[in-house]
Specification:
This protein has 327 residues and is α/β, with parallel strands linked by helices. Helices cover 55% and strands 8% of the residues. It binds zinc ion.
């Protein structure tokens, strides 16, 4: 059942959408921008459902014919556009520009929900622009983007832009515990998902994440034992094979060292993110002094900052590993 209820931490955005509906000032085009899993589709669906709800409120009633057809993905006046790789110019011409020529079948608006709208190339965007320049009164376009800056300024200037806000970690943790996750699991996942609900659910079932966690523990446990040749060869492997996961891996290492620091200095397990991996944390605590753990956390924070501005993974990783290893 689509509605605004399950959408967290985006109250201002939802309030604006509700106000637009209540005041009868619905725009022709909206952009919902945010990372994958941030709730763009949920917001767009709730809004689309509201626009054609027969009850005429600022949120979908959920029981009228339009809402029920919507829930079955069977509402003739809500059109979903999505493609595997990118939205092509032919798709724009056939599924948008041609479809807009006919009035809605049953309801007030004809709503187009365009997934990955920022994957339209300039040709496709220009085709879309033709419709967007003079849209019929019944047309509403909802553009879902991960990077709205890829859209032409001429499109942006005709759209109302909303950015989805990620959830603060405690809110995400509560969201997960409310859904039956154990407190420990919710803690771990919420720290790695960077506030994105969809990502926590992905991580939970992702074998790759379990694999990355194991790899991070291996590095943290063994790095002190490596000689300089092993250090550089491991950096090479790390920078090459883990290129796509580098940020997650560095976050994992950071939280492992942070946990080890708390555990070693207080003996307290209550605030550990990896509280179910005490055996592995013991090994990390044995290999590092308190001061070295603090230095490792600092080095990881700095490395992540530098990774964000500097493309050379190999260089940043080499310096990072060297700093963690040195006494
Ligand atoms: Zn309804």
């Amino acid at each position: 059942m689509d509605g605004y209820d399950g959408i967290l931490n985006n109250d201002m955005l939802i309030k604006s959408l509700k106000t637009a509906v209540r005041s009868g000032r619905v725009g022709h085009a909206y952009i919902f921008d945010g990372e994958k899993g941030s709730g763009k589709t949920s917001v767009a669906r709730a809004f689309a459902k509201t626009l054609n709800c027969e009850a005429g409120g600022d949120a979908p009633c959920g029981v009228c014919a339009s809402c029920r057809a919507f829930d079955d993905n069977n509402n003739p006046d809500v059109i979903y556009i999505s493609e595997e790789k990118s939205i092509k110019v032919d798709t724009v011409r056939e599924q948008i520009n041609a479809a807009i020529m006919t009035r809605p079948f049953s309801y007030r608006y004809k709503v187009f929900v365009i997934s990955d709208a920022d994957t339209m190339n300039p040709q496709a965007q220009n085709a879309f622009l033709k419709t967007l320049e003079e849209p019929p009164s019944f047309a509403v376009f909802l553009l879902l983007c991960q990077n709205f800056n890829k859209l032409l300024p001429t499109i942006l200037s005709r759209c109302i832009l909303f950015k989805l806000r990620p959830l603060p970690q405690p809110m995400l943790k509560k969201y997960l515990t409310d859904r039956g996750f154990t407190a420990e699991r919710a803690d771990t996942l919420s720290h790695y998902a960077r506030g994105i609900v969809g990502r926590t659910l992905e991580l939970d079932t992702d074998e790759g994440f379990a694999d990355l966690t194991a790899a991070a523990f291996d590095i943290c446990t063994n790095i002190k034992k490596w000689d300089i040749v092993e250090l550089f060869s491991n950096c090479g492997v790390f920078a090459k094979d883990r290129r796509g996961d580098i940020d997650t891996l560095l976050r994992l290492m950071y939280y492992i060292f942070r946990d080890a620091l708390i555990y070693k200095t207080t003996g307290n397990t209550q605030h550990l993110i990896h509280s179910t991996r005490l055996d592995r944390l013991d090994s990390v605590c044995a290999a590092f002094s308190t001061r070295q753990l603090m230095k490792a956390c600092d080095a990881l924070e700095q490395a992540r900052g530098r990774m964000a501005v500097n493309g050379s993974i190999q260089y940043v990783v080499e310096e990072l590993f060297y700093r963690i290893k040195e006494r």
